[in-house]
Amino acid sequence: MDPATNPRVELLTREGCHLCEAAHETVAAVAERLGVEWAERRIDDDPELLTRHGEEIPVLLIDGVPRDFWVIDPARLERLLTA
């Protein structure tokens, strides 16, 4: 992918969350296959994010917009990143 048009991908997670671990693996695999950089951010120490997303973790943000939560579907993620 062209770095200039590369989407900003961020996965919001919490410590000890089994859904977060699965989401991490999914995002890592899809991002690697597509050559997209991504970041994981723990919300445990961020009161604003914890209040906003505490019940929906993990949350996948693409260019700052929440796109998925709880279970990240790899096919949907790939479509979102290649659209």
* Rg calc: 12 Å
Low-confidence stretches: none
Number of helices: 3
Order of helices and strands: EHEHEEH
**Biggest sheet: strands side by side, in what order?**
2-1-3-4
Secondary-structure blueprint of this entry?
Elements: E1 9-13, H1 18-34, E2 38-42, H2 47-53, E3 59-62, E4 65-69, H3 74-82
Parallel strand pairs: 1-2
Antiparallel strand pairs: 1-3, 3-4
Helix pairs in contact: 1-3
Characterization of the model:
With 83 residues, this protein is of the alpha+beta class. It is built from three helices and four strands; from the N terminus they run E-H-E-H-E-E-H. It has helices at residues 18-34, 47-53, 74-82, and strands at residues 9-13, 38-42, 59-62, 65-69. Strands 2-1-3-4 form a four-stranded mixed beta sheet, covered by helices on one side. Helix 1 (18-34) links the parallel strand 1 (9-13) and strand 2 (38-42). Helix 1 crosses helix 3 (74-82). The mean pLDDT is 92.
Question: Tags for this entry?
Answer:
single chain, 83 residues, alpha+beta, 4-stranded mixed β-sheet, 3 helices, 4 strands, 23% strand
Question: Briefly, what is this?
Answer:
The chain is 40% helix and 23% strand. By secondary structure, it is of the alpha+beta class.
